[in-house]
Amino acid sequence: MSSRLPPHAGEWIDRSQTIDFSYEGERIEAFRGDVISSAVMAGGRRILARSFKYHRPRGVLSLANHDANVLVETCSRTNIRADVVAPEAGAEYRAVNTWGGVRCDAGQVLGLLAPLLPAGFYYKAFYRPACLFPWWEKLIRRAAGLGRVDTQATAARVPGSHRWCDVLVIGAGASGLAAARRLAAAGVRVVLADEQARPGGSLRHLRAGEAGARELLAELPTTLADVTVLSGHVAAAYYPDHGVPLVGPDGITFVHARRVIVATGLYEQPAVFRNNDLPGVMLTGAAARLAHLYAVRPFATGVMLAGHPQACAQAVVLRELGVPLEAVIDLGNVDDAALEAARAAGLQVIADVNSIEARASGGELAALTVRAHSGGLVQTLDCDGAVMSMGWAPAASLLVQAGARMAHDAAVGHSVPQALPPGVFAAGSVNGVFALADRRADGAAAAAAALASLGRGSAAVQAPPRARAPQSHPYPVFPHPRGKAFVDFDEDLTIGDLHTAVREGFDAIELVKRYTTIGMGPSQGKTSNMNGLRIVAGLTGQSVGAVGATTPRPFVYPVPMAQLAGRRLRRVWRTPLHDWHVGQAAQMKEAGTWLRPLSYGAGPSRARIEREYAAVRGAVGLIDVSTLGKLEIFGRDARALLDYAYPVGFARLVPGMTRYVFMTDGGGTLVDDGVCACLGTDHYYLTTTSSQAQHVLRQLELYAAQLELEVAVVERTFNCGALNLAGPDARRVLAAHTDVDLSASAFPYLACREGTVAGVPARLMRVGFVGELGYEIHVNAHALGTLWQALCDAGAAHGLLPFGVDTQRLLRLDKGHVIVGHDSDGTTNPFEVGLGRAIAKSKTRCVGRHALAVLGERVTRQLIGFSCADPRAAAIEECHLVIDGERIAGRVTSVGWSPHCAAVIGLAMVENPLAVSGERCRVRVTDRSLIDVEVVPLPFYDPGNTRQHDTTEEAGHGG
Amino acid sequence: MAAESTQHASRESPLLADLRGPRFSVAVHHGMRIAERTDGAPPADGFVVDVSAIPRRLIAGSGAAQWLEAHGLPCPGDVQGWCALGAGGLVAQIHYGQYLVIDQPDGGAAPALFADSPDRGADVLILDHDQADIAVSGSARDAVLAELCAVEMDYTADDWRSVRLAHCDVGLWQLSAPVPHTRVLCTPADARFLFGVLRECVTAAAGEVVGFTDYLALTAARTVC
To answer: Where residue A64 falls among pLDDT bands split at 50, 70, 90?
Structure first.
């Protein structure tokens, strides 16, 4: 630990506890309280990482998570922020994105190719020939980038949490502390969040020398007595209703606040000059953090580049702490008194400078060359450290996301809030207030305003005025005709890249951002956007305020994917028979949110489907249709609601009967279908498609409210389970278990009955679901298992087999049944799928009536059936195009091999000229070959519907 | 409340499949097959338990409120409003004009309602309301709910809310005594998913999965108190 300073008050490290870890293979000894970067620097290393694009050596820049210079990884985690993450004992860290390690990164050869790789080079190259692009993409991704994800590592689960409070104060600097203290005193619930490991903000390091800072920190226990403090938590975004995710080491705490005070302070800004990225060149805040918090001497001989009013004072404080600063280079915006104080403290002052450049030795800073305004005097300063005190950019991203309007204030030197949204308050430096007393007063004023908005007192506290003198250097940019002057360290973006962008016409700041990627790296422009604005302003002849600003979107700070994923909840709906299906070796598939069986048993898919198909057509089959939407429509106006919601007629629907229904939207588009059972003159039971259950429920509730109908729409989708028993033996299987008379005369086709099945209260509907004699049986969800098992047992002697969704589709395809959402899409109307004749034209009022009247007059396409016995037709899939001559005439919507037809059959939506039986057309399959198919009449199976109508007078009820 | 014969129970808890193994056996309560623990050890501080067997009915229709009053049941006036139904029962208006009635764990809160089969009258519809009902308790409960639910709740008072919990629409029923716990009522379709999530959370906090009779014992303690 050669670079440690002597112990001093305020340091965060505990010198009595050491932690051993390795960095780039080298053993490092840290103290508890260190971060990875501070511990490595304490060991004497200053090249900690390599840059994103050119693999240039990089060291600490902000040591505050405001840049992405030092990202490290272990074998299981990557992109670890070494500047703010404590080392773990025994961990083996290495820098990300190196080819051979930090010291000898072979990737640095890319620096030689820099002239060929300006910003946006990938827009101009590699796109021809197209076949080589994947190769280039792979190469570029390998050469540039951040850490590598180990896909073999066990994924972390980092549960988050929600927290509620009256006021969330973001930032625990002087203003935030003052605000929190006042709020707590008023008795409201306050959460104080800060990215640092301990509250106090810059008072603990960069502003430690401010008069009163020490006393303020000493008062912290009192200040925070009734405040919930979340240190080490970054406020990463701002969402509606004052929702702020705080990203902490243990996951995301999503805070729901009634009011929010943003006291996020400022981001220190670098100077732009040749080789400003060399290890050893850092922000003053980084040097201050190293010295104050971690007792690390950042360099052996240092120079400060001073460009704002407080710079010299900060240099003096650092020097007093033992940081070997030898000189101050006055780059402007520093008053004479400050320079004199620096001289008095023993610092050499170099004034009147208009250009600087850094020189390297061994990849690190070795000297600074400065040139004076007058006379071009060149002076070289041997140094291994340079701290940049150029000024600030407001940490206002959260304010902007909340809806605040920011505007550049030339008097302050950066943008400040001009208008804040309700419930949001700004305080402290981000609000343009700089002196410590003013920051505290501003925090107290923001708290008073927040309390007043909560109805707790009046906002009579006067806020202090904003700074009246620029607090930042107006243009800390020192171009050099040769060499790289970096604006954005994340993206290896130089001043030359911005010149190129503007020269090529990308002169609006949002275009510059997208072309050059400035501000798009992991640090989201915290240390680059301000200088970028200044440079673009200079290049376009505008003021900084006129250039505007880019939009800061969530997240302000990078958030590990594991934290975003949280507990990684993945919800699927299971029917009450799920375990039975799995136990029967069903192939389960997600259909929407539901998990459904496709088919059962072993063997190839086609064999399974044909086995189940044969059972249904020849004996009896059983399918779980619990996923259907189910609604009770009950009340005096139930019929009126249905009449309005559905275009079909209900006049002839009497109790004990069902009818097929379909729903359209106001434009006549087909959106759903199902069965409506009339249980009484004021009571209907309605089924919908599985996917549209919630939509239909919402629509019916909406219509009932709009028409002021006296009707209850009760959702039963999840409370009821349902099955369909279908096949010529269905009646015989069911008869043994029900008290309902199943004879054809007592229970005809399309009738519904209520009774018991296997002792379970049930509703039975005789519908032609798959074109066979069939009964759809609905029971309470918890009893479905009992019913299902009873029917399986009873059906075993008849050869009953369960059948899945794939088989059901084939059976329904045989009958030419339309599956809404599958054979139809968001443009299909009922006339196109053969449902036009079911529309009750006599209705004077129903949803879509006017549109349907128009659509019925000009039907331009039809859903047709086609078949093809050619073995090549097995290649036809849904969505393959139907070709007529040389043009596209439609698309296949359903297709499958029908054992009944001994051919591939399908449905296709085609233009009218083709929709004639006997016409031939071609389907273009995946390999682009064309297969001839014949348009045939629907249905493919049992055109007289005798099987589903089954009028056999057998079997009454078994009871 | 003693378990009933399993022979004629036609109803089964949607969570029964998740509670197989040597620690659990199947018993029948309120006509439903549900899991109970085979060992008699007192439950840990934190527990999660399937209490889906507790009867629930939905009263709907324009005459639902009058029906409740006529049968001596409290009637919450607002949507999302709720009233306690004796010790451990609840009436909540879960939708406009639709009332969920939950019986006490050991039954008896509203004999006129739960003794008869579901029915419909001129302007009222009475339906069995098949849901999963999961009780969560213990020191980890607050953290679990704060993680999975974005609605602020006062854990010290009895309350009922319709919320989203772990992406599922649920009814959340806070009971403060004798053991503070929360009942989570969800659809049977969500039950396995949600129970898995809650079990993971509770067991990670040193809690355990217990059986229905454990819950009955706890609520019986309420009567004694």
So the answer is: very high
Contact A780 B130 (CB under 8 A): yes
- Percent of chain A residues past pLDDT 70, beyond the cut: 99
Is the per-residue pLDDT at A932 higher than 80? yes
End-to-end CA distance of chain A: 89
CB-CB under 8 Å, A719 with B129? yes
For A819, the token pair is 């599956």
Cα B5 from chain centroid (whole Å): 22
Per residue in A350-372, pLDDT (tens digit) is 988 888 999 999 999 999 999 88
Q: What is the largest CA-CA distance in chain B?
A: 52
pLDDT at A955 over 60: no
- Per-residue confidence (pLDDT) for residue A507, from 0 to 100: 87
Q: What is the rounded average pLDDT of the residues A601-612?
A: 94
Contact list in A for residue B17 (CB cut-off 8 A) is 578-579
Q: What is the least distance, in Å, from the CA of B84 to any CA of chain A? A: 23
The residues, any chain, with a CB within 8 Å of residue A705's CB and separated by 6 or more, are: none
Q: Calculate mean pLDDT across residues A379-405.
A: 97
Instruction: Give, in degrees to the nearest 5, the angle at Cα A473 between A472 and A475.
Output: 130
Lookup result for tokens 């028979």: A577
> Among B170, B158, B178, which residue's Cα sits nearest to residue B83?
B158
List, in order, residues 6 or more apart from A636 with CB less than 8 Å away. Answer: A682, A710, A711, B62, B123
At A318, give phi and psi (nearest 5°): -60, -45
Helices (H), A174-261: 174-185, 213-218, 220-223
> What percent of chain A is helix, strand and coil (3-state, nearest 5)?
25, 30, 45
Q: Which of A517, A522, A509 minimizes the C-alpha distance to A487?
A: A517
pLDDT at position B225, please? 30
Is the CB of residue A661 less than 8 Å from the CB of residue A686? yes
- pLDDT at residue A604 in the model: 92
Which of B129, B143, B188 is closest, CB to CB, to A161?
B143
d(CA A631, CA A685): 6
pLDDT at A271 over 60: yes
Residue burial A169-189, b: 16+ Cβ < 10 Å; e: rest: bbbbbbbbbbbbbbbbebebb
How far from the centroid of its chain's Cα atoms is residue A498's Cα?
Answer: 30
- Interchain pair A634, B14: CB under 8 A: no
Would you say A428 and A442 are in contact if contact means Cβ atoms under 8 Å apart? Answer: yes
